[in-house]
Amino acid sequence: MENSEHSLFFSPREKFLVLIADVFIYLLISAAQVTIFKDIQAVSFLLVSPGYWFVVFSLALLSYLFGAYDFSDDSKFHDWLVKFLLIGSCSVLVVVFVNYVGAKERSGVFSRPQLFGTLALYLPVICLFHDRLQRRLIKRIRKSKFLVLCQQEDRSEIEKDLRPLLSVADVVFLFKPFDSEQLKEFLSQDWDFVFLGVSSSDLGSEITSQILVDRFQGKYVKDLLQIYEKMLFKLPVFYLTTNGLSLSDGFRLVSGGFWVRLKRLTDLLVAVVLFIIFLPFFLILPILIRWDSAGSVFYSQTRVGKNKWLFKVFKYRSMRMDAEVNGPQWAQQKDQRVTFLGRFLRKSRLDEIPQLWNILKGDMSLIGPRPERPEFVDQLEKQIPFYHLRHVVRPGLTGWAQVNYPYGSSIREAQEKLQYDLYYIKNYNPLLDLQILFKTVRVVLFQRGR
């Protein structure tokens, strides 16, 4: 295995290097195409063409958007094939756009046959390249040995979260109270990863000193909270402490200042742009909703906002008018109360369009924890630790929990989504917001709605 800086999966640095490699492969293939059809001097003209670099940038953006850099241990060759066929199809549209709109930039070099030929060669090559990287990832995991030290009562949560990631690896769990001699024997073995889900006082000074020596000798020793944050991109509420949260870094949206003002300005600008883009839907959808089922076009509900401020959220109606005659209910997957058109509206997220008004008013943000109903908030705050922390920021139209967790219709699933929401609140930055926007587009495109 590598030194202590290696990660189980491809790290963000490694993913960026893969993206650079993809671009370099495209440059080589396109240069070879131009050289074959033209001459070596034509390559220099191609490389200064704005249209050519627009295609390169679009290809990299499409690759990210369709998940070409989301490596996991269960992806197969056909998964890469589907992804890159979608990327290739969209790239063809980009090429057509560049060739017809930016025809003056071609200068006899940037021709359609060459660009289509480049894509035809690039897609199978890049698909094989990513498949080889995937095999390398699986090989890396299979060669790894993991030791997890944790509380007995936390075992089910930790195993549930880590087992899917480490299913092909050698994983050993040890629980408190520890037998010091047994623990020394285990730690003396050749572990690639040691995850600590207990405090130093639980381990004792001698064991803590041994772990410190192992860490400085290059072993991968990390606190369980770091593993959740860096590998699973969520905060484990069962492991969090009030003192630990109050002293940890991050929480830019809570402290106020520049980042809060920047986020609000971005919300206003994007909401106005989206309002203009979706203007045709404001005209068409009310007609379709009234045709699909009797009742009002819009519906509103009271939701809990920042600092537990109550506000009315607006949506296009996707359920029957009698959906809650017996009181508030959790929304269910394949909910029988949803109308025929409502299923499409929910999958496509078009039912959320009226919430642009909530964003303009300041009740909501474009990105943040989804606003919950007060009837459920009172119940969830009593049963889920730190649930109240999701109300320190404005709720969002989309969020980190929505793009990472498929569905939530119970207290257990609400806890899962809270862990992603807390990660977002702690680690907010504009790049994370941009990543959520890209992932939201992917969710909508692949119809992974709720």
What does this structure look like?
- The protein is α/β, with parallel strands linked by helices and 450 residues long.
- It folds into 3 domains: 12-140, no CATH class; 144-232, Rossmann fold (3-Layer(aba) Sandwich); 252-445, no CATH class.
- Helices cover 57% and strands 10% of the residues.
- It contains 20 helices and 8 strands.
- Helix 17 links the parallel strand 7 (365-367) and strand 8.
- Helix 1 (12-37) crosses helix 2, helix 1 (12-37) runs antiparallel to helix 5 and helix 13 packs antiparallel against helix 16.
- The longest helix has 31 residues, at 112-142.
Enumerate the strands of the largest sheet in spatial order, edge to edge or round the barrel: 2-1-3-4
Largest sheet, described in full? 4 strands, parallel
- Share of helical residues: 55-70%
- The count of DSSP E runs of length 2 or more, i.e. the number of strands, is 8
- The span between the termini is 40 Å
Please tell me the total number of domains. 3
Uncertain ranges: 1-7, 104-109
With helices defined by DSSP (H or I, 4 residues minimum), what is the helix count? 20
